[in-house]
Amino acid sequence: MSIKFGTAITRFLIAVGVAMGVVSGDAQAYSLMDVVPGGRLRMSLAMQAIVGNQPVSDAMAQWNQVGIGPGQDHAFFIGQASSTAGSCGRNQQNEVTWSANNCGLAFGSSTLAVTTTWSSSGKVVEVDVLFNNTKTWSAYSGPLKFNTNGTAINDLTRVALHELGHAAGLDHPDEAGQSVSAIMNSRISSIYTLQADDIAGAHALAWQVAASVGVPVCSLTASPSSITVGGTSTLVASCSPSATSYAWINTGFYSNASTGVVSPSLSTTFAVTGFNAAGGGNSASALVSVATAVVRPDLEVLSVSGPNNANVGGQINVSGAIANKGGGTTSTFRVGFYLSNDNAINVGDYLIGSCNFAGGFLSGQSGTCEGALNVPASIAAGTYYLGAIIDDTFTVSESDESNNIKLASSGTIVIASAITQVPVCTLTATPALISAGGSSTLTASCSPAATTHAWTNTGFAPNAASGVVSPFVTTSYSVAGINAAGAGSPASVNVSVAGMAANYTDLWWAGSVENGWGLSINQHGNALFSVLYAYDSAGKPVWYVISTGTWDSAFTTYTGLVHQPTSAPLSAYTPTSFVPGAAIGNVNITFTSNSTAVLRYTINGITAQKTIQRQIFGYGVAPIAVGDMWWGGTTQDGWGISITQQSAILFGAWFTYGPDGRVAWYVLPNGTWNGTTYSGPFYSTSGSAWLGAAYDASKLTVSETGTMSLSFNGSNSAIMTYTFTSGPFAGTTQSKQIVRQAF
Length: 743
Fold this sequence. Notes:
The chain is mainly beta. Helix 1 (54-66) packs across helix 2.
């Protein structure tokens, strides 16, 4: 279908799929109508019913920007909003409005708009533009857009730009035998702004500004003319002769204001008319373009706390609460704690410790950075300010950098001369041998005296020097004394339970030479629940479970059968798909000491052995003791998470199922506490084949897969929430109720 713009009564028609505006070497190919307006065109805009007046105002602003006539009148088109319009006869108003017909005559099937002019004495005295409201309209910039059925989406701005060209006196250059790129060609195309030929035609129109007698002739400037969201622009009206009052459009300015500041959220055309005793002059306009603002994060230090006294070379406990209050996501960043001689803390002061937040923060995410930090031995005794600086390495581009520093609410800290000796402690258990259900008193004795204690496996408070324990298996306890000089070496003692095995609950590995695989052991009484985390022949992560077994008479060797189940994918888990399967081998663990063992196994017909040891990773003080085997109960039978706790650090080994229902596992190796909620990133790994081959630790790869939080409600239940950001489950967020698994 070949459709074109109209002629005498200027119709704007659309030719679907027909290109417009071939390039021409002739810069004077425009076509002029026989008559031009006898004065500036004050257009009454009544387009509110569908798209609104703005696209027409923008089109007028484009013509005014290039100027009409040899003198380049930049105020030729004057726009004013009108609530009533639609007269089809001459009524001394230049109207731009919607209509269902052309003054009682049906629009052509493809007619979008009609421009009608009335002439008298060789000059146009009235112009009306009717837009077909039976069509679907939009307003947009850029090339033509199309519906799914291949029809073009009608752009009001482009159509208005063409029709206003007719109103000024320009005709179709292509119908005059010209071959040019122009908005005024009779056929629509992806051209949506004035071209060189259109501008040359506008300047060739026989139009000169008739000087107003006495009324103000105004111009309007916007500085700057381009802003971002939230920015401002100053509008200034300049009128000659001077105006005594002003009629502003889209500003809200008072009538006595010749200037003001605007802050539009979208690109907007503003207009003003000056008035004096002789009446009103022209309407001058200016376009303020608004660029889309970049959404950035905003890291903030919410609070900082610390002590009021310390010693050179000693330790202080500090804590800082942080958050991302911006709309964007951050990259990895660091929080640094600093000591300063004054209250203007900066990165040039004494850095005494930091926390790295790998993976960054999402919008609205918060966290804490806390722990025991060493006061530098090189610092002089005196009074200092303690503070925290978030993103102190300047890696994150933020919307607000002014809130990245905060002083400790505890005030100044007085640092005295160094205490040179850390506590040396002994730990006694009375009695050291108990029967099942009995208790023993642990007592720490330290010299010089400890101000706090770091206990392991007890749950004692840091200020406690003694306490009572009631283990149900033989258990090792330890304590380190801490004073201003630092922490001493841990002292340990065993409380043996008659007729019971020692407690081997922990995360075990073969050391750094075989980094990447391991064994979690959780012990209840004499029962062990163990999960072996390794890799198949292709290097994909797999796990094997030893859920039951038996001890030898000396309680040093534990033997059990190995299973490798299948079940439903973790994203749509159902226990009805859980199949434990037949045993695929056996495992024999011989404990050669409380912290070393030999792992012997036969799996899928392959026999081998490994020397393993407890993996040490803990530090700090936790608000709650939660180490154990956890699961989702019988309604989630088949998967679980082994939580190994050392001091304040939890190591979560999540054994579950991939998209194919085969075994898969993820690890939460570290995190931070916020009350009784522990959170951090979790990871997936791949590595060297484990069965029937020499393990190669250099093939280990670790990929951050998502974030996890464990919100504990007391010591026996929790909510496990995780979000996958990569891998086959990317975009999956779930929360599971979990409890300690009894066995």
